[in-house]
Amino acid sequence: MNSFMSWVGGKKSLRDEILIRFPLDYERYIEVFGGAGWVLFHKTPEAFEVFNDANSNLVNLYRCVRKNPRKLIKKLMFMINARDDFRCIVEQRRRGLFARFRDYDRAAKFYYLIQYSYGHKTDQYCCKPVSMWKKFPLIERAAARLQSVAIENRDFEALIKLYDRPNSFFYETAGTYASQGTSEFAKLFDEEEQLSQTLISLKSKADFEQNKLAEELKAEIGNTPFRLEEYDDVLVRKVVECVKVLNIEEISVTFKGGYEIKSNL
């Protein structure tokens, strides 16, 4: 399905290419920089999914879509495509008034800026005929899709540390530098460096745990038969592959059913 909105750096045209590169063995899907959610909406729903973005206005919009899409649609229904209205809402946001609005009023105004701004950057009026009403069915479908998705508004580093598990898969994409000004470029570059350091530290932690597990497995295998009476030969093949990595030259395996083999690796 399609997203109900567009966003700077959206992955609509790349979503198929991104999905075929996903791992097959994760249990927890965490989208670190959610944006328009093109990948989330396009992928098959799973039991554990998290959508995150640091933009509080965007996250509020998603939460309103999930909780009561018809209430949001009712707010949007009579908002017209007009330059003066657009400038008024931009000025309200610039003055920090969005935080004072009720959730659905704030969400409607922010969605209005997304729809009617140049490049969906929410700051310049795009001056083209865009029908808000055509988005209403997409909003309702998005609401159904988001019912089982946790929606977070966290810094990426805090989010990664919170959801870091061996079975977690973090989908993250870099900022769209070309669409930003000089100061925004520097900010995004710093965030990219910070993200890299966070991921490196997580990899170091994972490597340490993997090495510890490998040492325990070596001690367990030793020179004695590795008995697998309770498991099938699929698991045996996995164990054999693991032992290869550990540079063990020979393994003695007892299969389910009682027969035993020795294998030179």
Distance between the termini: 48 Å
CATH superfamily membership of the largest domain, which one?
Adenine-specific Methyltransferase, Domain 2
The radius of gyration over CA amounts to: 25 Å
CATH level-3 fold name of the largest domain: Adenine-specific Methyltransferase, domain 2
CATH top level assignment of the largest domain: Mainly Alpha
Oligomer: single chain
How many H/I helical runs? 10
Q: Which strands sit side by side, in order, in the main sheet?
A: 3-2-1-4
Return the structural class: alpha/beta
Mean of all residue-level pLDDT scores: 80
Secondary structure: helix percent: 40-55%
CATH architecture of the largest domain: Orthogonal Bundle
Outline the biggest β-sheet: 4 strands, parallel
Bin the strand percentage: 5-15%
User: What gross morphology would you assign?
Assistant: elongated
The stretches of 5 or more residues where confidence is low (pLDDT under 50) are 175-189, 228-232
| Overall number of structural domains | 2
Number of strands: 7
Task: Please explain how this structure is put together.
The chain has 265 residues and is α/β, with parallel strands linked by helices. It has two domains: 15-173, Adenine-specific Methyltransferase, Domain 2 (Adenine-specific Methyltransferase, domain 2, Orthogonal Bundle), CATH 1.10.1020.10; 222-264, no CATH class. It is 48% helix and 11% strand. Strands 3-2-1-4 form a four-stranded parallel β-sheet, sandwiched between helices. It has a three-stranded mixed β-sheet with strand order 5-6-7, covered by helices on one side. Helix 10 links the parallel strand 5 (226-227) and strand 6 (250-254). The longest helix has 40 residues, at 182-221. The two termini are 48 Å apart. The model is unreliable at 175-189 and 228-232 (pLDDT under 50).
